[in-house]
Amino acid sequence: SSGINAEYGNVGDEESAPKITKKEERLILTINCHLNPSLNAADTNKANLLLEFQFSDRMIRKLDTEISLQEDSPTTLVDDLVYHNLVNESDRHMIIESLDEVLYS
To answer: In terms of Cα–Cα distance, which of 76, 23, 29 is closest to 65?
Structure first.
């Protein structure tokens, strides 16, 4: 997995992305997930995932990453988001459901 890209770096790359130390306290109001073909059209195992969260204070966070369709799962992706304090632990189930719909439908 290559991790989630945010405006400050690649979240999955521990060396280049600083870990946000303050836990995300805001809750998510809405989630938009989009799956697009990889920028490398020859690699059918990869896809580009775009996540957009609107939080309780109406702020929007947009994240994107290239994922492996065989190796990445909704649970592992959400684990990364929670670990890096990009989302509140309480929103875990809602995000997993949204990712399930996009990845497996």
So the answer is: 76
